[in-house]
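Deliverable D5.2: sample structural annotation.
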Amino acid sequence: MRTKRKEQFYTLCFCIKEGQVLMIYRNKEPYKHNWNGIGGKIEKEESPLEAIYREVWEEASIDLNRANSLKYRGILSRKDRNSEGYVRIYTFIAHIDSIDIENNNPDTKEGTLAMKNLKWVCNKKNSNIVCEIPYFLPHMLAEENIYHYYCEYENEKFRKINICPLLEDYLGIHKKLRFPRHAM
């Protein structure tokens, strides 16, 4: 009998403003003591789009309805380190030039928020950020199409990332999760 692999679904957003990106220095797992984008687990009966609006509001007090733009950039995936399943992360880029965030509280239950220089965030030698980010974020920022970013690990260490266009037949999962076609 074949065992069904468990999939976990998350969202991740990079809020860009004037050459900087809003990052969170996480104070708990996953990625404790590393800088990461804003996001979290998709709740039951919630679409990825609904989840990213909720997560960015909860973690950074930013209403993405006021963003200059919000674009779905694809799926970041990897094998789950703790099971036979996979982790799928719906990724977004938000341009928030019109939103004043200077008065937002930098300390949250998830960690500390700060604007970081995009070059610093995309530096592959930067050991202070989640190690995969410099391998996919520059590609997401440069490309207009939607991609699948598959991260490979060896002995719990990031080894490489495979990047390929998200094929039309794979997009069926978006319908299942109520992901609107117009946001892609």
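Annotation notes: Residues 175-184 have pLDDT under 50 and may be disordered. The two ends are 37 Å apart (CA to CA).
The annotation will be released with the project's public dataset once the embargo ends.
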